[in-house]
Amino acid sequence: MIASVRPYETEPVGNQPPYDFPAYTSTIKRAPKRPLLHVAHSLSEITGPSFGANWSEPSASDLTHQGKGEPLGERIILEGRVLDGDGRPVRGTLLELWQANSAGRYTHERDQHDAPLDPNFRGAGHAITDNDGAFRFLTIKPGAYPWRNSHNAWRPAHIHFSVFGAGFASRLITQMYFPGDPLLALDPIYNSIPDAGARERLISRYDPDLSESEYALGYRFDIVLRGPKSTPLENRT
Amino acid sequence: MSATSASQTVGPFFKYALDHPTWSDLAADGPLGERIRIVGRVLDGDGAPVPDAMLEIWQANAAGKYAHDEDTQDKPLDPNFRGFGRACTDDDGRFAFVTVLPGVVPDATGAPQAPHANLSIFARGLLKRLVTRIYFADHERENERDPLLRSIGDETVRASLVASLEAPSAAGGERTYRFNVVLQGANETAFLDV
What we know:
The structure holds 2 protein chains of 2 kinds. Chain A is mainly β. Chain A has 4 helices and 12 strands; from the N terminus they run βαββββββββααβββα. Chain A has helices spanning 43-46, 188-191, 196-200, 232-236, and strands spanning 37-38, 75-84, 94-99, 124-128, 134-140, 145-147, 153-155, 158-163, 172-177, 205-206, 217-220, 223-225. In chain A, the strands form 3 sheets. In chain A, strands 2, 5, 10, 11 and 12 form a 5-stranded mixed beta sheet that branches. In chain A, strands 4-3-8-9 form a 4-stranded antiparallel beta sheet, with no helix packed on it. The longest helix of chain A has 5 residues, at 196-200. The radius of gyration of chain A is 19 Å and the shape is globular. Chain B has 4 helices and 12 strands. Chain B has helices at residues 15-18, 140-145, 147-150, 155-159, and strands spanning 35-43, 53-59, 84-88, 94-100, 105-106, 112-113, 116-123, 130-136, 162-165, 175-178, 181-182, 192-193. In chain B, the strands form 2 sheets. In chain B, strands 1, 2, 3, 4, 7, 8, 9, 10 and 11 form a 9-stranded mixed beta sheet that branches. The longest helix of chain B is centred in the last third of the chain and has 6 residues, at 140-145. Chain B starts with 14 loop residues before the first helix and ends with a strand. The chains are: A mainly beta, B mainly beta. At the A-B interface, β1, α1, β3, β8 and β9 of A face α1, β5, β7 and β12 of B.
């Protein structure tokens, strides 16, 4: 029996960063030099891991109540949806999120940046998307931090997102940025993405309607993953 | 159609958030099939170990079925096997998975693919993940007929996708395969455009 396989959409040119981007010096010894081998999609690429709705407890999406007290920093509400290229919600998929604290320090043993750790902020959380592909996190706004890519280089404030999607081909790890950050124009990781529109889609949007009075600022951020190519019938509707 | 979100590097500081040591054992619940170990190292263009990489495996069960709705093959699911694993490299760039030998899965034309595990690699310096496949050296006949392996003309490139069989240890135990991921250079692993 031939298993029916709907291959995934291919990506528009310029939508994804290259491997080789010397302005980001860590790519120099880590980017492969040979062209990638093309693989026609089979079940291996269009299937992928699933995580049941019970896998994640609701408290894992609140990064502000993981310690004895509240973390320092600007409280933010982060809402968004995970969608495929046709705007269909990606339901029940695992989203993992991690970030620096408000001073720009990660709770990672190798982060030696001379900024204080916050005993009330670990900076990691996760959630499973609901039936609309939606997610909501409560966290604090991360600080910028220095890195040794070049002299006096600073990463713009960002939150890391890891998301699985429906199949192996949709797996994505990315970073969400904040509007109006002057460091974006100088950041080689952000600017490795060739297409200006694709870069801007990684910047969250301030949403006054999502903000809660005298409590937290609201930001929206949608994630679009590759999904199966539409059938002609679906295109008509 | 709206364009997909761009990838960005996982960065150097993810282990505290993403590493779950139990996730490297895909066989913890006692699945059907032959239990195996896959060990290896991640190396950069200088041959230096990559101590900050994360690897993810996705594979079919021993019967050759993926635990996913899109796999409609008439083959049994194994309630004790999800097929997903994650491991992070140590200071020497080493990683290890315990799993079961995957069964044969057809390609899009129905031709059998040799047993393989799909592998994603994330690291600082990788702006997007790398993807490759782990095939198994002692499955020569199936490997010879595999559509992807057959499509590779260069023997060295093809060999980079095949995990070698380690000599059995005196203590016995599961069959162990070695699969190194070489990011760059003469022995560069064949990476896939999925």
